[in-house]
Write a structure and sequence with these properties.
This protein is of the alpha/beta class and 489 residues long. Helix content is 48%, strand content 11%. It has 22 helices and eleven strands. The strands form three sheets. It has a five-stranded parallel beta sheet, sandwiched between helices. Helix 11 runs antiparallel to helix 13, helix 11 crosses helix 16 and helix 17 crosses helix 21. The longest helix is centred in the middle third of the chain and has 25 residues. It is globular, with a radius of gyration of 23 Å.
Length: 489
């Protein structure tokens, strides 16, 4: 197990601050890979300036019991290995002071921690489905089993929104000031999504509670960016070698690039993360749309078309010149025109940097990992851009190809007739539609009937239907590689 005492002297990137003086002012819900390589790392960098004492209490509600158990055994220290194309660097992160898990410590301990006046920020990385909101962001899904359970027994919440609402209810009753609720998830206007989930749930419990939260709590939007593949045994073996034989089961590898843009809208004090590379702004949306469409949209495009072709990793796709050429065309010709970015942002430079990042051979970012939960990712990554092009009478054919590739992917078989295991919140509905339709145009039309994903406008747009159908039939008869090769000529 990792400790500062057993590290080789060659590991110089380690906490240079007194960890006994750290104060846990942040509760973070969702102690996963991305958070360890992003927000916790920014907090560690700030601690290393010796101008901050902010630290984090990590919380997992469902899953991750072993991770919490392991991190406790090594005094909440862990390794972040930044892997570039030609070099790598290990950092020992010490910004975590304590940790809680619902199944280990009980949900009551977590709620009481969040209700503690010392906590000024509750942050979250819980993925899209953790917010329990309806597809398209139209409100809280009151039929979600977790939300139904939370309304039946609010003192014992099972969802992240339920946890936040119950903690705020206790702060209100005790006369304790609210915290800032800070979403760090990769969804559009994530602060507004969190606010919607929390306020809607509070209203269903007690309208006066909802009024208090609305008046006393802020929900800043953020844009987070760093490619952090899920940890693998190979990653951990590599970290062990770099640490001179010291094992770190909590270690994570990521790319060197990191970005965090935060709406400066805190009801509490906040860490000066901008001193170590983050950026506080008045409006996050331009940065968020740039990242969601150019990076994440391109990632989804490559994930589905790559997986179908048998490419296991994103960098495998980028070794195929046809894939590399077409994804750059997608970024610059069909995603970039939909954006309204600040004057200092150069989208050509941003796209070139993305190609470099996607091509990094040191990062084994699995296409199957990115392909998960497509029903929740497609609307903001692809479909919003398509709607812009329809409105402006411009070309969206490559964006339509991404939709067709997703449809092929959820068919459950790749171009080599290998089975695909679908992981999606709407999995059962997708499987039913696929099972009850003939492959081809009929299946496209069946899937387009999913109002929660496509709304009523896109299925009724003939140009959209024609593009998606034509691409689908090409993928069905020629496969992903040949379809892309043909489009490049």
């Amino acid at each position: 197990m990792l400790s500062l005492a057993n590290l080789p002297q060659s590991i110089t990137n380690r906490p240079n601050y007194n960890r006994n003086k750290m104060v846990a002012k942040i509760v973070h819900i969702g102690f996963g890979a991305f958070h360890r390589a992003h927000q916790a790392l920014f907090t560690d960098r700030l601690l290393n300036t010796n101008l901050s004492n902010w630290s984090i209490c990590e919380v997992n509600i469902i899953g991750g019991e072993q991770l919490i158990s392991d991190i406790r055994k090594q005094d909440h220290l862990y390794t972040v290995l930044e892997k570039g194309a030609h070099s790598e660097q290990a950092f020992i992160i010490g910004s975590i002071k304590e940790s809680l898990h619902a199944s280990i410590d009980g949900i009551e301990a977590i709620i009481e921690k969040m209700a503690d006046p010392a906590i000024e920020i509750v942050s979250l990385t819980i993925t899209e489905k953790g917010y329990c909101i309806l597809p398209g962001g139209s409100g809280l899904d009151l039929n979600n089993p977790l939300i139904k359970a939370d309304l039946a027994n609010p003192n014992n919440p099972q969802s992240a929104p339920g946890l936040v609402v119950e903690a705020l209810a206790r702060r209100m009753r005790k006369g304790v000031a609210s915290f800032t609720a800070l979403s760090c998830d990769n969804i559009p206007e994530n602060g507004l999504a969190l606010k919607m989930a929390v306020i809607d749930l509070a209203k269903a419990r007690d309208p006066k509670l909802a009024e208090w939260i609305n008046a006393n709590t802020t929900f800043p939007c953020t844009m987070v960016d760093r490619i952090v593949p899920a940890a693998t045994p190979e990653t951990l073996t590599e970290i062990t070698a770099i640490l001179g034989g010291v094992q770190d089961p909590c270690g994570i590898a990521c790319e060197p690039f990191i970005q965090w843009v935060i709406e400066d809208n805190f009801v509490t004090s906040r860490p000066n993360w901008d001193q170590v590379g983050a950026e506080f702004v008045q409006d996050v949306r331009p940065y968020e749309e740039m990242k969601l469409r150019m990076l994440n949209g391109s990632h989804s495009f490559l994930a589905y078309l790559g997986y179908l072709a048998g490419y296991k990793h994103i960098n495998d796709c980028m070794r195929d010149e046809h894939y590399k050429k077409i994804v750059l065309k997608l970024m610059l010709d069909q995603q970039a025109p939909t954006l309204n970015v600040p004057p200092h942002v150069n989208l050509q430079h941003y796209a070139d940097k993305l190609i470099e990042r996607f091509s990094n051979p040191a990062l084994k970012h699995q296409t199957g990992q990115i392909a998960m939960d497509g029903t929740q990712k497609l609307p903001q990554r692809i479909l919003d851009s398509i709607r812009w092009h329809i409105e402006h009478h411009s070309d969206f054919s490559l964006l339509a190809l991404a939709v067709a590739a997703w449809m092929r992917y959820i068919g459950g078989s790749d171009d080599n007739h290998q089975p695909i295991v679908i992981q999606d919140p709407m999995k059962e509905q997708l499987i039913t539609l696929v099972s009850n339709s003939n492959d081809g145009t009929e299946r496209v039309n069946k899937l387009l009937s999913l109002h929660a994903i496509f709304g009523s406008d896109l299925p009724n747009n003939e140009q959209f239907k024609q593009h998606v159908t034509a691409h689908y039939l090409s993928l069905m008869t020629k496969g992903a590689k040949q379809t892309i090769k043909n489009l490049n000529h």
